[in-house]
Design a protein that fits this description.
The protein is mainly alpha-helical. Helices cover 44% and strands 6% of the residues.
């Protein structure tokens, strides 16, 4: 019985690891985010000059949040679940791209957050950039 539980646990962990692919996240970032946030996510993308607000440096999110990566805030800002962003923001809302929400991630508070595989990859990439 213990062997079956270990096997199932291993399979679940492997599945979660596959769902969060940093290289895949970089590809999503390069396609949808780098124009504004820059190639190194420091807020210095080529579109910065034409934006009304400077894009934030995404490499300091964890530092600005007392050493915890603000996963829920990042996801909600990107997919439009953040009510402030949903009612008008310079940040495009990519909600439709990030459907269906089939991957469960744990937030810094231990809550489960459902996201799409591309969002899980993007979040893993952004988290990997934290200084």
């Amino acid at each position: 019985m213990r062997g079956i539980v270990s096997l199932l646990t291993g399979a679940l962990l492997a599945s979660a690891a596959q769902a969060q692919d940093v290289r895949g996240g970089k590809a999503v970032y390069d396609r949808y985010c780098a124009a504004c946030h820059g190639p190194a996510a420091q807020g210095d993308g080529p579109m910065r000059m034409v934006l009304t607000l400077d894009p934030p440096d995404l490499t300091g999110l964890q530092h600005a949040n007392d050493g915890h990566f603000p996963l829920a805030r990042v996801v909600y800002r990107i997919d439009g679940r953040d009510p402030v962003v949903a009612h008008g923001s310079v940040m495009p809302i990519y909600g439709d791209f990030f459907e269906p929400r089939s991957v469960a991630l744990r937030t810094e508070r231990g809550e489960t957050l459902k996201v799409s595989p591309p969002m899980a990859d993007l979040v893993a990439y952004l988290e990997s950039l934290q200084r």
